[in-house]
Amino acid sequence: MTANLLAHAPHLFSCGIARSGAYNRTLTPFGFQNEDRTLWEATNVYVEMSPFMSANKIKKPILLIHGEEDNNPGTLTMQVMS
């Protein structure tokens, strides 16, 4: 939500702090929240709900906080085995 607000309503905020979130909804192609349609059935919804697709509009500072133990599928990162 923070990234979306900075992208679409920059006149309301001078900066933002975003905790774990789903910044690219195309990474959850089989539905999210109340959206049951897939990425291929509702492409516009996924693109509109993805702050990643509007990142070029964000001109204000944003601090993204993401925890190592976050199990949110929208922010899943690859673990490197050493």
From TrEMBL:
User: Which keywords describe this protein according to UniProt?
Assistant: Hydrolase
Keyword Nucleus applies: no
The residues covered by the Peptidase S9 prolyl oligopeptidase catalytic domain are: 1-72
Pfam families assigned: Peptidase_S9
For this entry, the protein name equals Probable glutamyl endopeptidase, chloroplastic
Q: Which gene encodes it?
A: LOC104774738
